[in-house]
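Each record in this resource describes a single protein on a pair of labelled lines. An example record follows, reproduced without changes.
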Amino acid sequence: MARPIKDTPIISGKDEERFLKAMENIVPISKERREEIKKNYEWFKKAAKFPLA
């Protein structure tokens, strides 16, 4: 039987400040990089020996 999954701890202090700053300054990736990521994903999906969604 599987063990229960613990709740994710709430961040606070300097970690919280760093996380919020990172969320405010999101840098979008280029179209070329997005296509490269998708191409790699499709390759791994094809090579996988187990079911992927």
Residues 14-45 form one domain. The two ends are 24 Å apart (CA to CA).
